[in-house]
Amino acid sequence: MDTRKLAYFVKIVDSGSITKAAAALHVAQPALSQQVSALETELKQRLLIRSKQGVEPTAAGHTLYRHAQTILRQVEQARIDVAASGAAPSGRVSIAIAPYSMASSLTPRIIREVGRRYPDIVLHLTEIYGGVLSEAIKNGRLDMALIYEPGPIRGVQFTTLIVEDLYLVVNAARELPVDPGAGTIALEAAATLGLFLPERIHTLRQVVEAGFDSKGLTLHLVGEVESVPSLTRLLRSDLGATILPKSAADALFHEEDFRVLRITGPALQCKIALCTPDHEPLSEAGSAVLLVLKEMLQEMLRSKYQPLSGGTSSAAADAS
Fold first, then answer.
1. Do the Cβ atoms of 187 and 263 come closer than 8 Å?
2. Taking a C-beta distance cutoff of 8 angstroms, is the pair 161, 300 a contact?
């Protein structure tokens, strides 16, 4: 099986027609059909279903299409890396950063430091939730991520960085059954409040729900909010409360309008982890950015947090 056959096959599936693919590839249609037949003979599987409307991949064809995309992407990256060998790393590197976490505060520093060291690298930064992470990392749409660790996901590797306690954030004017000097609130008391939380796909929401369930408490969800400005306005209007890690609560709600209280009885905790693919190596540019990211995180951990030892876990089952 050579890469040219795979490229032809991918183009046919994308085009939905052998005729259209032949025109795009500047290859005679009979020759293209012959290449598909050769693949089907080699794999002993029918790959395409032909009709007057065009072609559709079979189940085996879908499987080959997915693998072919990965193989072709790796071959192209190999060409780029070899051509750039010895030169400064360059290219596009995509990073996902969990919203409502200490990692989001790193964004300006990441941009500044990568730009200083590697001016030819273009960073693509986005926010993403753990539930959609597996496909994004496995399909190569993301190179790495700093997220709430969602549990085992096939095809990616998590390196746990810190474990953070969760805190209740509420309007400072709200009367609560707490000791004013303690800075804590019992989970049962927090359960009496209406909460704004992200949707269920977000690991933070899952941690909160699991904590409530463990004590037989009912979650009073006022709304699902994933916009920091909107969340700030809602809490300032005293329409509800929210639950966040301490670092995120301090960064987002440091004004005197809000109270930040550690949840106890029991404490709720979440893990922040670095996520990378475990099935293919990063590009040269991706490896360079990963090194910068690890240096920043180590510095942050030394100054604010206690790093964990042996926190790497490789997934065995897809949680998305």
1. yes
2. no
H helix intervals, 155-279:
187-190, 203-214, 228-236, 246-252
First-to-last alpha carbon distance for the chain, in angstroms, is 32
Q: Which residue, among 3, 65, 1, 10, has the nearest Cα to 38 in the 3D structure?
A: 1
How many CB atoms lie under 10 A from the CB of residue 25? 16
Length of the chain: 320
Rounded to two decimals, the pTM is 0.62
Q: What is the pLDDT of residues 58-108, one digit of tens each?
A: 999 999 999 998 898 888 888 877 776 667 788 899 998 877 666 666 788
> Which residues, 6 or more positions from 222, have their beta carbon under 8 angstroms from its beta carbon?
194, 195, 196, 239, 240
- Amino acid at position 48, single letter: L
* pLDDT tens string 226-278: 888 899 999 999 999 999 988 788 878 877 889 999 999 899 998 888 888 88
Using alpha carbons only, give the angle 36, 38, 41 rounded to the nearest 5 degrees: 110
Burial of 17 (0-12, 13-18, 19+ CB in 10 A): middle
Q: What whole-number distance in Å separates Cα of residue 113 and Cα of residue 274?
A: 18
